[in-house]
């Protein structure tokens, strides 16, 4: 039997609800594949602020560092929105990404045939969409210095963030992106704003340089405004997209809607070596928290990404992914992916249906 130590970070809002479903799924999968998951739970985000005053307690980071993989749900909520920046849930999320050096965030947007009608776009536009967004996660404007709200000489306040990338930061994410594209459709589109931003010019230059090492990958470049437009106009032109932290955040939410719901989209945040962190693309959905309405499938599929990319258990990952397809085939739908004639279920019932499918 293989043993893995998994740190669970339920976080806030719908986080605990979707993570509970996912743990049930992993327990079944563990039995079937002779894997023992040793789960340990830790605090992050708003719940950590309430308990300790710190959105990422040192203890949490230490537990994560000593585990084989980290499964995070979501953080954030109205309650903490007006605290000083260092005490915000989001600061805890950024700190764990930086603390584990998770510079590469893989965000697949794949349309499942069962959900074509849940997309807000026309069937012909989205059918067959299969995009991988490779988002740089520990640099760019999220982390650049200087940042803060400063007082000017006239006594007026001035808010500052800095978008910065070094060559080595660009090179390492570009390498992940080229390798990802190589294993997929061999097309890589790098998204930047090189017509305006110097940081983007350097980005484009480095990505272009690296292309020499991957002659089998076809590289293209788009400005981010055009990329946003192309994503909703003709998403099938994309295979792999590589971009910086902020552009990747925005484009991956847009790509989510191609697939029907952000409640379906998983992600993997990877560094060099263990542990990776696996989290849905969506947030804590405070508007539906505590109501058993959340779609747990993005979280469940994040666990599948954990098995595939973090633990090298591809068969177990495939089993989960097939289970998700099967419950959708059976017609189960949470509110976000509901369409006429389907069976409306909440978070828990979706989980139960999935467990049943996996057991059968
Ligand atoms: P959100 O992703 O939480 O919600 C956006 C919309 O999508 C909401 O209407 C929500 O109900 C819906 N939604 C999201 N996930 C869903 C799911 N699994 N099933 C059904 N519907 C779902 O984004 P937001 O409202 O902009 O942010 C809410 C909070 O979450 C904020 O505090 C934000 O900072 C935080 N956030 C955290 C993460 C993260 O933990 N990785 C990501 C994004 C936002
Ligand atoms: C995400 C979220 C986070 C981000 C926030 C909550 C810090 O939007 O994971 O996509 O911007 O990276
Ligand atoms: Mn986001």
UniProtKB/TrEMBL annotation:
<feature type="binding site">
    <location>
        <position position="225"/>
    </location>
    <ligand>
        <name>substrate</name>
    </ligand>
</feature>
<dbReference type="GO" id="GO:0005829">
    <property type="term" value="C:cytosol"/>
</dbReference>
<feature type="domain" description="Isopropylmalate dehydrogenase-like">
    <location>
        <begin position="5"/>
        <end position="354"/>
    </location>
</feature>
<dbReference type="InterPro" id="IPR024084">
    <property type="entry name" value="IsoPropMal-DH-like_dom"/>
</dbReference>
<feature type="site" description="Important for catalysis">
    <location>
        <position position="193"/>
    </location>
</feature>
<feature type="binding site">
    <location>
        <begin position="77"/>
        <end position="90"/>
    </location>
    <ligand>
        <name>NAD(+)</name>
    </ligand>
</feature>
<dbReference type="Pfam" id="PF00180">
    <property type="entry name" value="Iso_dh"/>
</dbReference>
<keyword id="KW-0464">Manganese</keyword>
<keyword id="KW-0028">Amino-acid biosynthesis</keyword>
<keyword id="KW-0963">Cytoplasm</keyword>
<dbReference type="GO" id="GO:0000287">
    <property type="term" value="F:magnesium ion binding"/>
</dbReference>
<dbReference type="InterPro" id="IPR019818">
    <property type="entry name" value="IsoCit/isopropylmalate_DH_CS"/>
</dbReference>
<feature type="binding site">
    <location>
        <position position="97"/>
    </location>
    <ligand>
        <name>substrate</name>
    </ligand>
</feature>
<protein>
    <recommendedName>
        <fullName>3-isopropylmalate dehydrogenase</fullName>
        <ecNumber>1.1.1.85</ecNumber>
    </recommendedName>
</protein>
<dbReference type="GO" id="GO:0051287">
    <property type="term" value="F:NAD binding"/>
</dbReference>
<dbReference type="InterPro" id="IPR004429">
    <property type="entry name" value="Isopropylmalate_DH"/>
</dbReference>
<keyword id="KW-0432">Leucine biosynthesis</keyword>
<keyword id="KW-0560">Oxidoreductase</keyword>
<feature type="binding site">
    <location>
        <position position="135"/>
    </location>
    <ligand>
        <name>substrate</name>
    </ligand>
</feature>
<feature type="binding site">
    <location>
        <position position="225"/>
    </location>
    <ligand>
        <name>Mg(2+)</name>
    </ligand>
</feature>
<feature type="binding site">
    <location>
        <begin position="283"/>
        <end position="295"/>
    </location>
    <ligand>
        <name>NAD(+)</name>
    </ligand>
</feature>
<feature type="binding site">
    <location>
        <position position="253"/>
    </location>
    <ligand>
        <name>Mg(2+)</name>
    </ligand>
</feature>
<comment type="subunit">
    <text>Homodimer.</text>
</comment>
<comment type="pathway">
    <text>Amino-acid biosynthesis; L-leucine biosynthesis; L-leucine from 3-methyl-2-oxobutanoate: step 3/4.</text>
</comment>
<keyword id="KW-0100">Branched-chain amino acid biosynthesis</keyword>
<comment type="similarity">
    <text>Belongs to the isocitrate and isopropylmalate dehydrogenases family. LeuB type 1 subfamily.</text>
</comment>
<keyword id="KW-0520">NAD</keyword>
<comment type="function">
    <text>Catalyzes the oxidation of 3-carboxy-2-hydroxy-4-methylpentanoate (3-isopropylmalate) to 3-carboxy-4-methyl-2-oxopentanoate. The product decarboxylates to 4-methyl-2 oxopentanoate.</text>
</comment>
<feature type="binding site">
    <location>
        <position position="249"/>
    </location>
    <ligand>
        <name>Mg(2+)</name>
    </ligand>
</feature>
<keyword id="KW-0460">Magnesium</keyword>
<feature type="binding site">
    <location>
        <position position="107"/>
    </location>
    <ligand>
        <name>substrate</name>
    </ligand>
</feature>
<keyword id="KW-0479">Metal-binding</keyword>
<dbReference type="GO" id="GO:0003862">
    <property type="term" value="F:3-isopropylmalate dehydrogenase activity"/>
</dbReference>
<feature type="site" description="Important for catalysis">
    <location>
        <position position="142"/>
    </location>
</feature>
<dbReference type="GO" id="GO:0009098">
    <property type="term" value="P:L-leucine biosynthetic process"/>
</dbReference>
């Amino acid at each position: 039997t293989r043993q893995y130590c998994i740190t669970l970070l339920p976080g806030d809002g719908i986080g605990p609800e979707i993570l509970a479903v996912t743990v049930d799924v992993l327990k079944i999968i563990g039995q079937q594949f002779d894997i023992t998951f040793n789960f340990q739970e830790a605090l992050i985000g708003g719940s950590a602020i309430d308990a300790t005053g710190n959105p990422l307690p040192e203890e949490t980071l230490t537990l994560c560092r000593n585990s084989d993989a980290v499964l995070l749900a979501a953080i954030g909520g109205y309650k903490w929105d007006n605290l000083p920046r260092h005490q915000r849930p989001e600061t805890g999320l950024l700190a764990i990404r930086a603390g584990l050096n998770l510079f590469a965030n893989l965000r697949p947007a794949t349309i499942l045939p069962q959900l074509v009608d849940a997309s807000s776009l026309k069937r012909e536009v989205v059918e067959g969409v299969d995009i991988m967004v490779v988002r740089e996660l520990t640099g760019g404007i999220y982390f650049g210095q200087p940042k803060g709200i400063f007082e000017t000489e006239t006594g007026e306040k001035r808010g500052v963030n800095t978008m910065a990338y070094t060559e080595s930061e660009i090179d390492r994410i570009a390498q992940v992106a080229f390798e990802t594209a190589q294993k997929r459709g061999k097309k890589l589109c790098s998204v930047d704003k090189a017509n305006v931003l110097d940081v983007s010019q350097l980005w484009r230059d480095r990505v272009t340089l690296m292309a020499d090492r991957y002659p089998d990958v076809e590289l293209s470049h788009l400005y981010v405004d055009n990329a946003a437009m192309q994503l909703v106009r003709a998403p099938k032109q994309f295979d792999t997209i590589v971009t910086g932290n902020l552009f990747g955040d925005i484009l991956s939410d847009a790509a989510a809607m191609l697939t029907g719901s952000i409640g379906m989209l998983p992600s993997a945040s990877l560094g060099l070596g263990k542990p990776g962190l696996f989290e849905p693309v969506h947030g804590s959905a405070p508007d539906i928290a505590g109501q058993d309405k959340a779609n747990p499938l993005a979280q469940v599929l994040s666990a599948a990404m954990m098995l595939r990319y973090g633990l090298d258990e591809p068969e177990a990952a495939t089993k989960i992914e097939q289970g998700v397809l099967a419950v959708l085939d059976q017609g189960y739908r949470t509110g976000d992916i509901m369409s006429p004639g389907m069976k409306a279920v909440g978070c828990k019932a979706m989980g139960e249906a999935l467990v049943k499918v996996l057991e059968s």
